[in-house]
Specification:
Helix content: 40-55%
CATH architecture of the largest domain: 2-Layer Sandwich
Number of strands: 19
CATH class of the largest domain: Alpha Beta
Structural class: alpha+beta
Distance between the termini: 35 Å
Number of domains: 2
CATH topology of the largest domain: Beta-Lactamase
Number of helices: 12
């Protein structure tokens, strides 16, 4: 029993001595265990997603190989058929293609063709052959180079459409990538694919694709010689799309490369929905002994899987409840001290508030006295004095309202100008444009700017751009050097400004009082086409003063 009481006393002593550390330590310990468990679950989920993505990639790669193997089988059948005849006329070739009963898109190929081997002395015979079949104007191109043993021009190509006719007569043996594939096919006597080539579709060299060649050999006087090639043309994008008919892409992104995953070797692409970038797997695809690379991008994984998120939430909730329970035990012991500290803080705030309020009232009364003195000096009658004084006091009041809304903190520059110009903004009347970046002013600077804007607006409404419907007022500002903002006031479209006039109160107020308060010179010009004024206002860091404080709560 004594040992039990001793442990309880020691525990309470720890709670009072470390009112924050003990609950935080318990919370951190339980949270760490929860995070570790969530991390382990998340790693298992991510590995499972990568395994699924890898399986999808292998399935798509297999679909590509199956689609290519189907075309290779057609080419083998064509080579076996054409090897038994002395020549391959157009009718026999078309009969062969029709007997294949291919689907409408030729199983991902742009077509199946026959390319005859043409020696240098047989060029004329070839040109006559294609001219008789397709009409005049077709001939072998380009001419056989001096170092080239023979040509392999496109002789027949099905389906017979405008795009395929553009390729008739083209010597494929003259192009290095196609020539290398044909030489390899002749050497191995089996279908061989070329690397990435540019296809001529509808007369434009634009599509990336590849070709699959199957050599046809003929026996002449006991000697076996190359007679030509039966081949297929593949638009890489269409080939990829046709393979995906066998294996849906779903929400995956797919890129198809020649030999290696390099941007310059990109053949075809299917972007993932929304352009998302998730995990990537690569699969090597062998199409008639030529290597290709398939890059499959999975959907972007969530930050946490459902199981990991549930584990994390329940674990943190349990840790928070346990820490909260310990916190309640220590709270009562610290409340009295916190209350006493709050009362002391409130006394200090009350003294600071009294000093701040006294300072602001003095500044406001000083501004009012200056306005009264200048207004009285310029007024010629009591009514004029009252009217001028009323407007200026109202301008001060409007700016005070803005400062009150912000608790005498930072005040947006555009709000000060919009407030002073609001009485003159009408649907039918002078046009007012206000533009500039978001800038906030200290309370004293906002009051001075409000007075200056009021005086300029009053003058514009009586004599300037705001006095008639065709007038236009533009107020803009921009950041200047040394932490200041430059404000431009420009009027146009109002009555001409007389160049000989007496000096008014507004001019004195802006050039003396406002310039003095802002500690920056004011450039006020009465140009004939309209008044222009440039004000430079400092962007200060106003003192942050909290007018109200909530009672400090014990932590």
């Amino acid at each position: 029993m004594r040992n039990f009481l001793t442990r309880r006393i020691a525990t309470r002593r720890w709670l009072v001595r470390y009112p924050r550390a003990l609950p935080v330590a318990i919370l951190v310990l339980v949270a760490a265990v929860t995070l570790l468990a969530s991390y382990a679950i998340e790693q298992v989920e991510r590995q499972r997603a990568m395994d699924a993505l890898d399986e999808r990639g292998r399935a798509i790669a297999s679909a590509l190989e199956r689609r290519a193997n189907a075309n290779a089988s057609y080419l083998r059948a064509g080579a076996a058929l054409f090897a038994t005849v002395d020549e391959v006329p157009a009718s026999r070739f078309r009969g062969f293609v029709s007997e294949l009963r291919l689907d409408a898109d030729y199983r991902g190929a742009e077509g199946i063709g026959w390319a005859l081997r043409v020696d240098r002395e047989d060029v004329g015979d070839f040109n006559r052959l294609v001219a008789e079949e397709y009409g005049p104007g077709l001939e072998l191109r380009p001419a056989i180079a001096p170092d080239q043993p023979y040509a392999v021009p496109v002789t027949f190509l099905e389906p017979d459409n405008e795009g395929n006719r553009q390729a008739l007569g083209f010597d494929m043996f003259s192009e290095p990538m196609r020539r290398a594939a044909m030489i390899e096919a002749e050497r191995t006597a089996r279908p061989t694919s070329s690397g990435k080539v540019t296809l001529f579709l509808s007369g434009e060299a634009s599509a990336a694709g590849f070709l699959m060649y199957m050599p046809v050999f003929a026996t002449d006087a006991g000697e076996v010689r190359l007679a030509g090639y039966v081949y297929s043309v593949f638009d890489a994008q269409d080939f990829l799309a046709s393979a995906l008919q066998l294996e849906e892409a779903g929400d995956l992104g797919i890129r198809f490369y020649d030999s290696e995953a390099d941007p310059s070797r990109l053949m075809a692409t299917i972007e993932p929905p929304g352009g998302r970038q998730g995990p990537v797997v690569r699969e090597e695809v062998m199409i008639t002994d030529h290597p290709w690379v398939l890059e499959v991008t999975g959907p972007e994984p969530p930050v946490l899987s459902r199981l990991a998120l549930a584990t994390l939430l329940f674990g943190l909730a349990g840790a928070a409840l346990l820490a909260g329970f310990l916190r309640v035990l220590t709270r009562q012991a610290t409340e009295d001290g916190a209350r006493l500290a709050w009362f002391e803080e409130q006394n200090a705030i009350r003294d600071s508030l009294t000093r701040e309020l006294n300072h602001r009232v003095k500044n406001t009364l000083s501004n009012v006295l200056s306005i009264v003195a200048l207004t009285r000096r310029r007024a010629v009658s009591v009514d004029e004095f009252a009217e001028g004084l009323d407007g200026r006091i109202r301008a001060l009041s409007a700016t005070h309202d803005l400062l009150t809304q912000s608790d005498w903190g930072r005040t947006p520059l555009h709000a000060v100008i919009e407030t002073e110009l609001a009485p003159y903004a009408r649907e039918e009347g002078p046009a007012i444009d206000i533009a500039g970046p978001d800038i906030e002013l200290a309370p004293k600077d906002a009051l001075s700017l409000g007075l200056a804007t009021h005086e300029l607006a009053t003058n514009a409404s009586k004599y300037g751009a705001l006095s008639q419907p065709g007038g236009r007022l533009e107020v803009s500002w921009s950041e200047a050097e040394d932490g200041r903002v430059r404000i431009e006031w420009a009027e146009q479209g109002g009555p001409p400004v007389p160049q000989e006039r007496k000096r008014g109160f507004g001019t004195d107020l802006i050039e003396r009082v406002v310039a003095h308060e802002l500690q920056c010179p004011v450039d006020l010009r009465f140009d004939p086409e309209g008044v222009r004024c440039t004000l430079v206002v400092p962007v200060r860091a106003p003192t942050v003063f909290a007018l109200r404080e909530q009672p400090a709560q014990p932590n």
